[in-house]
Specification:
6-stranded mixed β-sheet; 8 strands; Rossmann fold; ATP hydrolysis activity; two-stranded antiparallel ribbon; 6 helices; ABC transporter ATP-binding protein; about 220 residues; AAA+_ATPase; alpha/beta; MacB-like_ATP-bd; globular; ATP-binding
Length: about 220
């Protein structure tokens, strides 16, 4: 049997400034998640450079990539990936045991609106509350980059808006670089920078001089 090489992404090039809220938009299968995984050190590029804070992480060994994921990256996924036998507080605390400069788990959960739910298990939380726990878990690592893969995909409209507001507020208040990938182009006006990916390539890149708050966006 012959081997066939499939290029998930090919010809991707963009720059993101520190502290920006970035939306990467494109249809399913466009390569958005692959780009996010490469940025987060979960996948490796076969060629090219990926510079984060001036350092080319594409040249990292597996050991260095592990440290990069552990200390510099916060991930938020469509599905929450919480441990069902741990409380909200314990889920966040567990993730912090391997970090260099973590924040206080209880304080971060209070910041995301879960001060009254610290000792609840995931089964006792709504979908939106579980996603807030997963965001708190990522934020408490005190990462350089917060990478969000369809973070509202499993949520209803109003809960999804609340989660997006939390992410947007986090970016503004903590000066954290937040990257959200989505197939929903209606979210573009809330971003500082909108990067379109199509067929594994960078399409348009748009800078919004006056990003809208998520409350003003309808879809």
């Amino acid at each position: 049997m012959g081997e066939i090489t499939i290029h998930a992404v090919d010809g991707i090039s963009f720059t993101i400034e520190k502290g920006e809220f970035v939306v990467i938009v494109g249809p399913s299968g466009a390569g958005k998640t692959t780009v996010l995984n490469i940025l987060g050190g979960m996948d490796t590029a076969t060629s090219g450079e990926i510079r984060v804070d001036g350092v080319n992480i594409a040249s990292y060994s597996e050991k260095k990539l592990t440290g990069y994921r552990r200390n510099d990256i916060g991930f938020v996924f469509q599905f929450y990936n919480l441990l069902q036998n741990l409380t909200a507080l314990e889920n966040v605390e567990l993730a912090l045991q391997i970090c260099k400069n973590p924040l206080d788990a209880e304080r971060v959960l209070i910041d995301v609106g879960l001060g009254e739910r610290l000792n609840n298990f995931p089964a006792q939380l709504s979908g939106g509350e579980q996603q807030r726990v997963s965001i708190a878990r990522a934020l408490a690592k005190n990462p350089k980059l917060l990478l969000c893969d369809e973070p509202t995909g499993a949520l209803d409209y109003q809960t999804g808006k609340a989660i997006l507001k939390l992410l947007q507020d986090t970016c503004r208040e903590k000066k954290m670089t937040v990257i959200v990938i989505t197939h929903n182009s209606a979210l573009a006006p809330m971003a500082d920078r909108v990067i379109q990916i199509k067929n594994g390539k960078t399409g348009s890149i748009v800078l919004n001089e006056r990003p809208l708050s998520v409350e003003k966006i309808e879809w």
